[in-house]
Every structure is written in C-alpha cells, then in structure tokens.
Task: structure prediction
Amino acid sequence: MADSKKNPLGAETALYRKYRPRTFDEVVGQEPVVKALAGAIKSGAIAHAYLFAGSRGIGKTSIARIFAREIGTSANDLTEIDAASNRGIDDVREIRESVYSLPFESRYKVYIVDEVHMLTKEAFNALLKTLEEPPAHVTFVLATTDPQKVKPTIRQSNARTIRLEGTFTIRRIGTKNVKNCPALGCPGAKADGWLSIGPKPLARW
Result:
C-alpha cells in the first residue's frame, strides 16, 4: 500500500513526459494547425515567425517542438524561453545576440518564446527589432494564452515587416477526439480535453 502513494509528484512528471506527442501524427484534435504547418514545411515556405494562441495546456509548446523537429532543427539549435519568468530586456538581449550566430548542425535555429505577452514593454520592443530583420536561418514561435495583449503591439510596430504568417488558434480537443488512451484512464478525458495538464489531476486520483 505504501508503494502506491510513493512519490506522486514523480509519477505526475513521468506521465506528462511519456504521453506528450512527438510527431504531427500523434497530435489529436488540432488538424487545421497540423495541416497548415505540414503544408508549409512540404512547400518550403517556412515563415520566420509564428504566433500560437490558445489556452493553457492544449499543446502550443508541444506543437512548436514538433514543428522544430520537422524542419530539421536539432536540440542544440532549439532554444526555449519562458517569458513568464524571463521577461526582462536582458533576457531578450541574450536572444538578440545569439540569433546572428549560425546553427550548430541544422538549417534553422528555432526560438520558442512561451507566454510572450508576459514580456515587459522594453523587452518586447527589443524582440520586435529582431523580428523585423531576422537572419535567414532563424524562426521564432511565439506562444501565448492572451493573444490580444500581443497583436496590438505588433500592429503598432510595423506588422508588415514582421510577417507573423502563422497565427494559429489551438483549441481544446474534446473527449470524443481522444484516442489510444494510456493506462490509468485517459488524461484528456480526466482534464476535460486539456491534454498537457491531464496527468496533474490524474496523479491525485
């Protein structure tokens, strides 16, 4: 009996990592997003910046990571930034300095900036300068749960130059779309369609 309660937090982390999708084929309920991204990759029309909008836990960063892998970006050329905790101008300055170095082993360097709307005004203005004139080998994926706080700033800052060509709204999948449910029940069903937060309530049951 003691073993069943041992390290519930560790079990939660293991479930979260185990069932995260790693290919477009494993992504459930986001067909329009997957189709658009796969089509862009197939045609070679990779934009230098994308905006992924949607509520917490629905797969924005997971899809961003899959996109990076699909365009051939290795782990050494992938950078992830959590703007909720790294939101200052010094954090963005590090990005601006690093984008101009060539990739280690990939065609593209990909920067995933999660909760980009949390950047300070000064930091976001600094990021926009990089988005306006990006190196050809760099692609940004900006993820946010509050796109209305991002888009006005973009419109005020020469949006034609920035070309955020991939503004995707990622939605809840709904329990009817969940397939291949893992052991201990289906995380998507338990979390009302929010797959990446499913293991958290699951671990409490």
User: Anything to note?
Assistant: The first helix runs from residue 8 to 18.
